[in-house]
Specification:
Shape: elongated
Order of helices and strands: EHHHHHEHEHEHEHEH
Strand order of the largest sheet: 3-2-1-4-5-6
Helix content: 40-55%
Bound molecules: 6-O-phosphono-beta-D-glucopyranose, magnesium ion
Structural class: alpha/beta
Strand content: 5-15%
């Protein structure tokens, strides 16, 4: 394994919580279609693409629609979702995330985003974080969803580092698997129950330090 030269970040659940806005927008759509959509149902949509999310939602409601109608509804949900993210503020950045990014910059560790949302640029701008990322690999640049390692491998490539020199931060099991499949080290954000395969599991970036990163070199 190489020494860690770069950190690649998932965004949702690591740097900010967008799942709550996805939930409101999907729930409104479900209600318009005449059924309920619970927070528990919403868990099934985390890390899943927009169209797959819609398919799961329609399955929950027992609704069958044409592809054309599905495209229209996915677009409608996204427009509604965007009204929320366009109001996001930097104070929504999760505890310790900005501080850790600044610490990495200071130590000359390279930083990239590896997150499959097509709204990533809007959210980073709203949070005033765009400048922190040297490379941004978002949903407009990848075709494969995690656990495929594509999003992280493209991040490493964009930074010009080898995969084994990368450390990934992820809150989803599929994301941890993607990092490992890409031959990268991984810090899981959340519970060892589902993220146990990661090299280290912490509650949030407020618990992460450069010293802990160095320890992962060994
Ligand atoms: C993921 C979310 O991060 O991004 C999913 O967990 C979402 O719920 C996916 O569907 C795609 O996001 P967007 O912004 O392209 O619809
Ligand atoms: Mg996530």
């Amino acid at each position: 394994m190489g020494q860690i030269k770069a950190c690649l970040f998932d965004l949702d659940g690591v740097i900010v919580d967008t799942a709550k806005y996805h939930y409101i927008a999907w729930r409104e759509l479900a209600n318009e279609l005449g059924f309920e959509f619970t927070e528990e149902d919403n868990e099934r949509l985390k890390g899943v693409s927009r169209m797959t999310s819609l398919n799961i939602l329609l399955e929950i409601g027992g609704v069958t629609l044409s592809d054309e109608e599905k495209n229209r509804l996915a677009e409608k949900k996204n427009e509604n979702y965007r009204t929320f993210i366009l109001k996001m503020q930097p104070d929504e950045i999760l505890d310790g995330a900005k501080e850790f990014l600044l610490e990495l910059q200071q130590k000359n560790i390279r930083i990239a985003l590896g997150w499959a949302s097509k709204n990533a640029m809007t959210i980073l701008d709203r949070l005033e974080l765009t400048e922190c990322f040297e490379a941004i690999i978002d949903g407009t640049k990848v075709t494969e969803a995690k656990p495929d390692p594509e999003v992280f491998l493209k991040g490493a490539e964009a930074l010009g580092v080898r995969p084994e020199e990368c450390l990934v931060f992820e809150d989803a099991e599929a994301g941890v698997e993607a990092a490992l499949a890409g031959n990268m080290k991984c810090v899981g954000i959340g519970s060892p129950n589902n993220l146990g395969k990661a090299h280290l599991v912490i509650d949030g970036l407020h618990q992460m330090t450069y010293e802990k990163l160095i320890e992962l070199n060994n």
